[in-house]
């Protein structure tokens, strides 16, 4: 487990060609929705990644800002109600509702609903039996594929496949377009990129599951730290007021000027990283620079920045290659 920032940089950048797999279990046959960017490996990941890179340009993200803003109305109403009732409330639950709204709107162009949250939760918090099967699947991926072990439940799969294919059909039928992630994928398909409805649904699903919980936990921890540090809260409020005084309304540009806000969010991410480790699988025997250590081909490697755990040991390498790879 490399924890040294220099070595992490080597693995992620300079020597990326030796580590461009995460090595996660993916079962395209029984679970086509597991074949998204996070789980795809090797050439399949590279091809999908290069197709999707254009989906994340700052301009495209900016074009979704109004949709994000629209979701804050409901959030503000809820927060005002909680503030006036002075009752304790579950901030994480409120933030999850907000980020689910944002991702459903920016991702698929529809309002979030109970079913979306239900199946999102089902994927993010699977029952214990599913977790055990998935641990097994990570340990012996070939056997898991033969047994047909899936990451998503059949209900969640049919729900997402149905909802996305109906939305695609509707847009194609009436010629409607929207400024959302699904539209970016449809445009890529219409421009001649080979993307099936299943592939589109898998990437859209990743966008949803990768986005709502990570962002909600970041916001929740920001609120927690701000509640504990009133002086920081006061300084942040002043910055927001000052910036908004020079803009007619809350806009992408105005938020980009809020440097202290950015620092507050980055500090929350540092203290409470929603994804504390980054996984890589070594594709070739790798000589760790300036040491006699070799990371063997096939070894699953977890990258963990030292600052997150305060570990001083330079490098520890855990675990042999998983069976069946
Ligand atoms: C605080 C919020 C977030 C955190 C901490 C976070 C963290 C991460 C991490 C650690 C990875 C793996 C990186 C790697 O292996 O190199 C990742 C991948 C990914 N995340 Fe996020 N994420 C966040 C929000 C989002 C949002 C909002 C979206 C989309 C709406 C998103 C979409 C993705 C995608 C598509 C990938 C796969 C990228 C690839 O394979 O090239 N994430 N994220």
TrEMBL record:
Top-level taxon in the UniProt lineage: Eukaryota
Family matches, as InterPro entries: Cyt_P450 (IPR001128), Cyt_P450_E_grp-I (IPR002401), Cyt_P450_sf (IPR036396), Insect_CytP450_Detox (IPR050476)
Alphabetical keyword list: Endoplasmic reticulum, Heme, Iron, Membrane, Metal-binding, Microsome, Monooxygenase, Oxidoreductase
Main location group: endoplasmic reticulum
Membrane topology: Peripheral membrane protein
Cofactor annotation: heme
UniProt subcellular location: Endoplasmic reticulum membrane; Microsome membrane
GO MF term list: heme binding; iron ion binding; monooxygenase activity; oxidoreductase activity, acting on paired donors, with incorporation or reduction of molecular oxygen
SUPFAM superfamilies hit by this protein: Cytochrome P450
GO-annotated cellular components: endoplasmic reticulum membrane
Pfam families: p450
Family membership noted in the UniProt record: Belongs to the cytochrome P450 family.
Protein name: Cytochrome P450
Organism listed in the record: Aquatica leii
């Amino acid at each position: 487990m490399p924890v040294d920032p220099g070595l992490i940089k080597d693995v992620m950048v300079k020597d990326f060609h030796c580590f461009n797999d995460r090595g996660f279990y993916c079962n395209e046959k029984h679970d086509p929705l597991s074949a998204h960017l996070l789980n795809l490996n090797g050439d399949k990941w590279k091809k999908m990644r290069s197709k999707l890179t254009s989906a994340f340009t700052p301009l495209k993200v900016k074009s979704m800002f109004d949709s994000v803003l629209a979701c804050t109305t409901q959030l503000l109403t809820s927060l005002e109600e909680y503030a006036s009732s002075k009752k304790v409330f579950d901030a994480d639950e409120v933030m999850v509702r907000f980020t689910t709204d944002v991702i459903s709107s920016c991702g698929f162009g529809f309002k979030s609903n109970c079913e979306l949250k239900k199946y999102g939760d089902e994927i993010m918090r699977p029952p214990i039996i599913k977790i055990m099967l998935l641990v097994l699947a990570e340990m012996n991926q070939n056997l898991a594929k033969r047994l047909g072990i899936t990451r998503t439940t059949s209900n969640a799969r049919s729900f997402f496949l149905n909802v996305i294919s109906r939305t695609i059909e509707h847009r194609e039928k009436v010629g409607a377009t929207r400024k959302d992630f699904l539209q970016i994928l449809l445009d890529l398909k219409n421009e001649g990129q080979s993307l099936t409805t299943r592939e589109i649904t898998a990437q859209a699903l990743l966008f949803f599951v990768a986005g709502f919980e990570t962002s909600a936990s970041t916001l929740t921890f920001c609120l927690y730290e701000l509640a504990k540090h009133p002086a920081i809260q006061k300084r942040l409020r002043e910055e927001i007021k000052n910036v908004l005084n020079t803009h007619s309304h809350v806009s992408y540009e105005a938020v980009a000027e809020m440097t202290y806000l950015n620092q507050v969010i980055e500090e929350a991410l540092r203290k409470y990283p929603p994804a504390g480790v980054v996984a890589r699988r070594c594709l070739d025997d790798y000589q760790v620079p300036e040491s006699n250590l070799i990371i063997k081909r096939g070894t699953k490697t977890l990258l963990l920045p030292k600052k997150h755990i305060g570990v001083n040991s330079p490098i520890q390498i855990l675990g042999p290659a998983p069976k069946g790879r």
